[in-house]
Records
---
Amino acid sequence: MEKRSGAPYRADMVSQVNQALIHSLWKDLSEKEFDHASDSFKCLAQLEESFAFYNLGDPPGYSIDTKRTHANLLNTVTPSFKNLTEDILLELRLNIYQKQDDPKTGVWTEKLLRFSELNMSRLKTRLNEKIKDHLRIRVFGLQWACLFLDEHFRTGDYRFLNTALKMQDLGWLYSDKMLPNEIRRHPTHHPVPLLQFRILLNTAFALSRINQRG
Amino acid sequence: MAKPFNIVLLAPSRYSLITICVTELLRRSGANIGGIFVRRLFNPNRFVSEFRRDGTRLLRKIWKKLILRKTAYTRQHHETIKDFMEKEQIDYSHLGEFKQRFDIPVHYCKTLNDTEVVQGLKDTQPDIVVFTGGGLIREATLNASGHGILNCHMGILPRFRGMDVVEWPILENRLNEIGVTVHFMDKGVDTGDILSIHKIPPTANESVAQLRERFEPIMCRQLVRTCLDFLNGNLERKPQAPEEGKQYFMMHPRLQEVAKRSLLSR
């Protein structure tokens, strides 16, 4: 026995709104000077497909630091929320970008999926136990949502898109309404608006792909 | 003459139409209904934990299942549980009537894992327990349930474990993997031994809501048939391997809408 239901949602209308928003946000973002080489969060890495889909021009070029992935953090700790760090989140994302067929990536993302689903309403509290700084909590949560979207593209598993959508409903974490202000507020590029832009772009792209599938 | 099977039921509320139907069909089959354990409705902890999990869906569920009940179902081309009850002449309005009419013990409890429930099961010594909803079941309850606790899951196991498993196969374009599975409950989420699988392919122009309504009478029949077949020795338990399936969680409204449109646009 189980439960369900759902609220009405106009996907076609929202995807048009998203398209206009994406173009306007990218215009604001691309007007700023940005040294992608120094972006340790790889905020806009591996976005070729979604940039092409929305005609945003060439995406920022990133060189993935292979030395970092060779540190192989994933093999040294057991997959769990307790052991999750910013470095592990980044390494998981880099593994996906480098198309490394590492079974550990799947084990980690499955564990994190389950944890975030079971703890969605108290995710901020759980992160607060781990990281005390408000801004770092937000960057951590946004990276986590980015990882789920990346994993959705890697595996085609809609459960990861589903959880990333739920994370976007967490007001403290993500707000596409506030995003234009957040971009303008920071004189230089900051991971919070950049990661939110990544989430907005990849979510819109993922939903468009499902709608096109028919 | 063989001794009748002793069967206990676990119910999510006294107004559960599925529990009423399953209990009555089992009773008519000649089984001895050793008792019905029913979760109390007015329990703030239950409301909070279910609201945390289901969000506003819970309010719609309460409206449909506890307030509207049978009147929530309108006349459809498919058979609803209301039609099923009329056809089978099942006219109970709540589970308490089983006590009034047949002196079947009906116990109200806070959760189905209360010590009173576990003790009640030990005293009743059922051959089998049939779960018709009411939350997670802990090991103590499982261990006091004879052959075990049977559940009818609204998805095809082992592939689709967890929640919203009517919508997930639609989203994944696996329309031939929609149906119900009767299985034994264990400590995991829908990971217990499988007894029977019944596929329910969607019909033309059928909406997700209609499909779900169509599931309910099928689930009642399938649960009763499988339970009796197993007790009569006609069915074998088929264990699941954990890696065979995936656990699904509640579907986000955006993806639900995609699944709904996808089903209607076939």
---
Amino acid sequence: MSPEIGHYALVLALALALFQSVVPVWGARKRDAALMGTADAVALGQCAFVAIAFAALTHAYLVSDFSVENVVLNSHSTKPLIYKISGVWGNHEGSMLLWVLILTLFSAFVALFGRNLPLPLKANVLAVQAWITAAFLLFILKTSNPFNRINPAPFEGRDLNPLLQDPGLAIHPPLLYLGYVGFSMSFAFAVAALIEGRIDAAWARWVRPWALTAWMFLTAGISMGSFWAYYELGWGGWWFWDPVENASLMPWLAGTALLHSAIVMEKREALKVWTVLLAILTFSLSLLGTFLVRSGVLTSVHAFAVDPERGIFILAILIAFIGGSLALYAWRAPMLRQGGIFAPVSREGALVLNNLFLTAACAAVFVGTLYPLALEALTGAKISVGPPFFNWTFGPLMVPLMVAMVFGPFLAWKRGDLLAAAQRMMAAFAAGIAAMLLTFAVTRGGPVLAPVFIGLAAYIIVGSLAEVAERVQLFRAPLATTLQRARGLPRSAWGTAVAHAGVGVMLIGIVGETCYRQELIVQMKPGDTVEVAGYQVTLTGLAPVQGPNYRDVVARLVLREGGVDAGILEPAKRVYTARNMPTTEAALKTRGFSQLYVSPGDVETSGSIALRFFYKPMVLLIWIGTLVMMLGGLLSLSDRRLRVGAPKPAARRAPAVQAAE
Amino acid sequence: MEGSFAVWTMFALMTAAAVMAVLLPLARARTADGGSDLAVYRDQLDEIGRDRDAGVIGAAEADAARIEVSRRIIAAAERSGATALEGAGGRRRVAALAALVAVPLVAIVGYGLRGQPGYPGQPLAERRQQAPGQNDIATLIARIEAHLAANPEDGRGWEVVAPVYLRLGRAGEAVRARANALRLLGATADREADLAEAQVAAGGGVVTAEAKAGLERAIALSADHPKAGYLLGLSAEQDGRPAEARAIWSRLIEIAPPNAPWLGVLRSEVARLGPADAPRPTASDIRGMVEGLAARLEADGTDFDGWLRLVRSYSVLGEADKARAAAASVRQRFGAEADKIGQLDALMRELGMGG
């Protein structure tokens, strides 16, 4: 397949996107079913053509077609197959193509499965999606065309950045983009609602699956990226408050707030205007994330694009979409009819509190990330806002959020009773205190606050699950009744409990890693033995190993635990031959949820090697926690039932409620 | 029309498919078959009933919820009655025309800007079959590499593979090969110069200190070695001594045999340096002049323009402290004259030393 076919398919997709940007909106305005009806087929066509373009580029990588500039710059004929494929999006041009492919894929899903949507809403949603698609296709064709050709074609490529030759990074960008782009759906729904000038609980029902899907993928993408940084960069850190990481965290925080406020909207028809704003903000932050990473304004391992033309183009897209949608919001939002009312202490109130904390945390990250950039742009001064800033702003916002997160589900809709909720949460409080005392008793060293946080984590896990336990009347009713009620319980309730518990699990991992980590740096010669975290580690030798497109010097370490053989670790210094670029391949030994992490330094001429050992207690729980959160999202997504928040009737009818219970 | 028949056929088919994606739904007679929010609320009512029967919510809450949802249904029904969906032939024709004309036009123009329909894809495997010469190089390298892995002390082997690496752009490996050859076969001017050449290539064209040391060893072994001489000239130029580079290269041109292959390169390099010009003042000359100016102003400080010149000169020489000190004495002497202080402030801003 010729690369030119891919190029032409991309241009055709742009032509269709331009058509779809105009005609369905016009149709919706005139209530013309025929015009609105074009949106479906055109969206499918766009998706097909972008898919052809993506397939053509992938094909060029697979057959090492070095007449395509993008392949020359990012591939090599000896590269393993998986990295030939992942190389397609391991660079600026290809990753933008993937971005658009996912965008059109979401549009196609709306076209295929959106039969329950009113026709004008669907037409407007697809048109808004087409605006985004058209803008990004123009961007690709104008500044970042992956189908640029080279004549004559070189015989060998320059290989992919070695840091990216890793299974983790092969799947990290697609997951992240599924999240980023997924939030374009809630954005399109929000803008469509503003264009139509009306919004109601049904809107939230239609947005829910898209927002949940995007949230799950974004969670997975961030988690994957963090795990990759942990084992690949060789420093053993899992979160650096790097602007690129923050760029993905911001839409996640806003998206999490969006999910929760959309629940209030679907169940109680309240918070409508706020939900629309959050939908706009979440996607704006996704665009901002794309801009930060893709324009090259940041210098970090992620930023492989440095070209002012691109930066300005993306900035223009950013201004058009964020500015445009916010202007539309300012104009139309006052016309939206406000919905239900509720008391401050109620499930709605708790969710509003959650929203406030999440958006405040998001704002803190935003300031910490963008302030240095703005300062540099205005005055030329280069400052860096490091982890202390984020730890002191983000951390204190997260603690009350996590405390309140457990409370929320215990409160009734419309009006709740804080004291009654607290009484039902006794088990959670007890678990928290017990965990705190236990941690205090068994650990030595570490910050004083560490046991408190472990207690908080236990409170979250037990409290989240206690809500479900109560609803199924665990231990209070016969087992059969409990099981029957558990089956009858909506899966969304299970989803809430599991996702919240996941936060607690992650917190244990974070506290274990940051507070109880042990570190040891030693210079070792073959035959030397050191003692780390209960392991006796012996360096038996250093050996060169030839890989397909790299050379390794492997340090062979034999582990013994209390005299018993406990395995072999082989950390390596690796040099990728095509770019002559060294990387560090750390080796990991897992014990329960804890890991021993070994990162090699350079080999000295004397034959000794510097080795860094980290012992990281409970570190795996960080990522297991995110998996649990995603499982919660999946449970909630699988619940196709409608959601109604039955309000707690006013006080004068309270006796009837008690009688019913 | 350039490009193969197959490529243009594909383009035509794809364009037709894109146009059809618009025309087909337009041609289909359509009714408003979308869903509506009424359906959602009806489902919500059913849901409340199910929840109450399952005991998930109490009867009183179920009643309250049902009242709320019923209100939504009434509101939605009022709205949906107000709008009827209709079709109009005129609009449909405009849309069809856009599909038939605008979509192909955008595609052809957009593609025409950058596309190269006449340039077929070049999968590596096919090219290897078509160009056995290149294939030979790949297998040759593989064979030599295997041989060298088994016999790393074979200096001749390293010497054979080194220029091939260099031509393929694998400069790092070329350096290793040249260094091995030098170590195993002994130093000659040729080998020193070849190693330096590889080092320069690995350094992206910069003559590093390491390469320069090797070049000097080569010249010590053979004073008129052309490659070593050429690279030393390059090093002089990169160090900011173009006159020296010109002298070295001119001498090499003089002593070269009349048909030497490297003459062309040297002549174009000399031409690149441009005509020899008058000796430029050196840094120490400039410093002398500046110090003269400073001494004169010390003696007679009324020359305001002289002071500004001094501040600028110090800043250019990279002596920010002295520039600031000079600026401070200007402020002292001319503090009463606002326009002069304004000029000074403007200069300081221009020099990036603040106001």
